[in-house]
Amino acid sequence: MSTIQDIVDQLELQPHPEGGYFKEVYRSNGLINEDNLGEDFSGQRNYATSIYFLLTSESFSAFHRIKQDEIWHFYKGSPIKLHIISNDGIYSNTIIGNNMEKGQHPQFVVKAKDWFAAEVIDKNAYALVGCTVSPGFDFKDFELPERDTLISKFPEHKNIITAFSRL
């Protein structure tokens, strides 16, 4: 059985600002011009990007959002609980994992501009997933808000925001 450090080393993962570890593994050669992206974007974007993303039960992915849809793919380890707050303030969650008989989803799409956070469900465990973004990811499209900012926007979700934010 792989240890967390084995996976970090083998996949050459680096710490991610939202929590966990990541490595970009794909960035398309093709580019989308700013004129075709819409008013939310500045500059060009690749057609798509993909990363490995590793979370552990000792860490979580803090609430953040991006301007694009993000597809999560489950690979290995514990299922992940994904917490989502839509721009309209509606909270939902889903389990990303490979036990479909228990309602887990091996693949799930977080809609563009939804706030989301993730946690490993099992104790003393990890989850290895992949995340695909289209148009391709750029840190200019990434928002990691301060806790109080997100709570002021969605006060009815104060408890879940507090649990899955760091600032």
Describe, in plain words, how this protein is organized in 3D.
- The structure is a single chain.
- With 167 residues, the protein is mainly beta.
- 13% of the residues lie in helices and 40% in strands.
- It has three helices and twelve strands.
- The protein has helices spanning 4-11, 147-153, 158-163, and strands at 14-15, 21-27, 31-32, 45-46, 49-56, 60-64, 69-77, 80-85, 91-96, 107-110, 115-120, 126-134.
- The longest helix has 8 residues, at 4-11.
- The protein is globular.
- The model has no long low-confidence stretch (mean pLDDT 95).
Tell me the distance between the termini: 34 Å
Low-confidence stretches: none
How large is the count of helical segments?
3
Q: Into which percentage range does the β-strand content fall?
A: 35-45%
State the share of residues found in helices, binned by percent.
Answer: 10-25%
Q: Provide the succession of SSEs.
A: HEEEEEEEEEEEEHH
| Overall mean pLDDT | 95
Cα radius of gyration in angstroms = 16 Å
Total number of beta strands:
12
Q: Major sheet: order of its strands? A: 1-2-5-12-7-10
The global form is globular
Class based on secondary structure composition and strand pairing: mainly beta
Biggest sheet statistics: 6 strands, antiparallel
Using brief descriptors, characterize the structure shown.
RmlC_Cupin_sf, 3 helices, YML079W-like, about 170 residues, mainly beta
List the helices and strands and how they pair.
Blueprint: H1 4-11, E1 14-15, E2 21-27, E3 31-32, E4 45-46, E5 49-56, E6 60-64, E7 69-77, E8 80-85, E9 91-96, E10 107-110, E11 115-120, E12 126-134, H2 147-153, H3 158-163
Antiparallel strand pairs: 1-2, 2-5, 3-4, 5-12, 6-11, 7-10, 7-12, 8-9, 8-11
InterPro entries: Cupin_DUF985, RmlC-like_jellyroll, RmlC_Cupin_sf, YML079W-like
Protein name: Cupin domain-containing protein
Domain DUF985: 5-144
